[in-house]
């Protein structure tokens, strides 16, 4: 995916400090944070969205890698109060603007009872 912005970040073509990295994913701070802590978990493998990931033979393993990385990412993010919300927008009508699967880890303030 030559012109995918997150593929370019994964490849290091767009410098972006990494909070966390392993073989399967990177975690970086969102460029336009909606909360004091707003981190993006980005699989290195290009899946357009959650559905494409779910259909790919190797997709579930990548989803498991994200789950496995979460404690380390949460620790690296520095979350006062400890809690966070994990949000994945799937498709333009759900607000997805970058068509490379990613998860938003949001926290650092009281997020309230609502989803958004
Ligand atoms: P989406 O709307 O697709 O769920 O989320 C895309 C997110 O990527 C947005 O929150 C946006 O601020 C973030 N973003 C877009 N381009 C960049 C970038 O070049 N660097 C970083 N760190 N975040 C980006
Ligand atoms: Zn990509």
Can you put this structure into words, describing what you see?
With 116 residues, this protein is of the alpha+beta class. The chain has a single domain (5-107), classed as HIT-like (HIT family, subunit A, 2-Layer Sandwich), CATH 3.30.428. Helix content is 28%, strand content 22%. The protein contains three helices and five strands. The chain has a five-stranded antiparallel β-sheet. A hairpin with a 3-residue loop joins strand 1 and strand 2 (25-29). The longest helix has 19 residues, at 59-77. The radius of gyration is 14 Å and the shape is globular. The termini are far apart. The model has no long low-confidence stretch (mean pLDDT 95). The protein binds guanosine-5'-monophosphate (5GP) and zinc ion. Residues 1, 4, 6-7, 46, 100 line the site of zinc ion.
Question: How are the SSEs placed, and which strands pair?
Answer:
Elements: H1 5-11, E1 18-21, E2 25-29, E3 37-43, H2 50-55, H3 59-77, E4 84-87, E5 103-107
Question: Which keywords apply here?
Answer:
116 residues, HIT family, subunit A, binds zinc ion, binds guanosine-5'-monophosphate, five-stranded antiparallel beta sheet, alpha+beta
């Amino acid at each position: 995916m030559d012109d995918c912005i997150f593929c370019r970040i994964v490849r290091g073509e767009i410098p972006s400090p990494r909070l966390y990295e392993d073989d399967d994913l990177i975690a970086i701070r969102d460029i336009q944070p909606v909360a004091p802590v707003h981190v993006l978990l980005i699989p290195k493998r290009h899946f357009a969205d959650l559905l494409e990931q779910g259909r790919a033979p190797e997709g579930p393993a990548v989803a498991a890698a994200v789950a496995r990385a979460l404690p380390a990412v949460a620790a690296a993010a520095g979350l006062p109060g400890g809690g966070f919300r994990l949000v994945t927008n799937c498709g333009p009508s759900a607000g997805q603007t970058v068509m490379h699967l990613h998860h938003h880890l949001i926290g650092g303030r009281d997020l309230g009872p609502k989803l958004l």
